[in-house]
Amino acid sequence: MTEATLTAPVKYRGALSDLSGADRRSLFERARGGDTVVHERTAAILRRVRADGDLALLEMASEYDGVTLEALEVPADVRRRALASIDPRVRRALEHAARNITAFHDASRPQAVEIETEPGVVVGRRPDALARVGIYAPGGRAPYASSVLMAAVPARVAGVPEIILCSPAGKDGYPAAVVLAACEIGGVDRVFAVGGAGAIAAMAYGTECIPGVDKIVGPGNAYVAEAKLLVSSVVGIDSPAGPSELMVICDSSCDPDTIAREVLAQAEHDVDACVVVLALDSATASVVASTIERTISRMLRAGVILSALQQNGAILTAASIVEAVQFASEYSPEHLLLAVADPDRLLPEIRNAGCVFVGEQSSVVFGDYITGGNHVLPTGGAARRYSGLGSPDFVRWTSYQKVSGPAAKRLARDTVILAEAEGLQCHAAAASAWSSP
Questions:
Q1: Which end of the chain is more exposed for a tag (fewer CB within 10 A), N or C?
Q2: Active site amino acids
Q3: Cα separation of 337 and 333, whole Å?
């Protein structure tokens, strides 16, 4: 397939079965990573922050953000003023989102388990909240206040006693007012005007001002993503994050205008966003393609959208719903929209998606902001092994075992047999001591 054959501004167009091996690999290879320049620059920033702490962060605020900071931490009164100053409609919407996020993540909190596997033998597992969590909130193309809520609220629901957040400083020396407002609504304890890979280093290693954390979550650019991977040996991180992704499975029952809106909404995030429309007939594919093409020019971020579609966009036709579902499972998208006649019937067949949106009225943008589900989702095919962020991600499990005297005597015999089979004499001796009367 070549761009010369396109009738819509996407990189790939045609039957799914006609994708060449090279085209298929290109479509699937969308995860960040492998950029030597990004890796080396990020590693240098981490070393600098680890060595010089706050001084390095203050210097980098000037170098990268053009801001001279008097202090890294945002005072509590500044945060409160930000909440009071934002548009009341925005505050109301953020509070609406926070209520729904709280409701869902509270319902999905991990629960302790304790069972008696046999008489006198009790095995248990207890979820304990992490002591301190760090959130990164981007401040580049747009202030992602919604991402603050998506990370902070589940952490608070899980019982994390201290939540800190880092976000780049604007010209006034503070993160965007709407981000600070979301911090107040979401229950963030401390906020620092620090951005990029430096913020990740600070939260991982700790500085004079910024405390080290147990886990770092939140989206960011390629440098932030690389930094999180590099510090993952000393601190927990969420799933590796990359550009936004959307796959739509649609049939002739769908509204082409709705599909076009969903495509454009995800493509406007970033020039590296990945959008795939998988239609169940060629007529639907054609009308969706023409609708997208007709609509792009009216968008404020038309340049970003067009670049994304030309680099990573596809409008493909599947021969059957079985083929479509199989392809979706292999592609493992961040967002999967089922715009088909009976989406509920199809839902049980879906595997490997960050989040499934059931029916075209279940717009992905509702999930981005306000349904209560999380929008911090695995990208780049990571949905095969990672899940969306939730309250279980902010706990670690304490396992415990209790054995009664009579049970110890009963367990000893088989334990000795297994230890001797493995050649572990001391294990066998420790167990056999309990078999004596």
A1: C
A2: 334-335
A3: 10
